[in-house]
Fold:
Amino acid sequence: MPICLSSRKSSAKGNRLGAQRGFTLIEVLVAFVVLAIGLGTLAVGIATALRADAKVHSKHVLDQIAESRLEAAGRTGLLKSGRREGRIGRYRWREIVTPVDLGKERPRDGTTPQVASFMPSWVEIVVRDEAGLETRLAALKLVQRVAQ
Structure:
């Protein structure tokens, strides 16, 4: 019987040493691959979000400049038909003023129509950045006629 006990001890000792104490090399490699794919996907997502945010910010600045130029048209100086261009920082703007002919109605009594003191003009503002992104705003403005 003592021989059996000693053989049991050796087999129990062998089982403890044979038990898994850590991860195999394959398991570690698979974990690294999964981690790398996850981090790569995360990096692509962050880069895409940053580009989209920069584009939205640039569009917002374009809109602000266009609104400002449209509001200033005719207030800061005489609004003349034609085209004007300028630059604000890295943004280029263009102002196009076109007179609008509404047609002249004949008074019912047959007299000559009176010339209005204001003339409608179509004002279009185009603002573009260096990357090619642009915004357009337009409005109908009343321009005081110049005495001739």
About this structure: The beta strands are 82-88, 91-99, 118-128, 134-144. The first helix runs from residue 2 to 18. Confidence is low (pLDDT under 50) at residues 4-8. Helices lie at 2-18, 25-72.
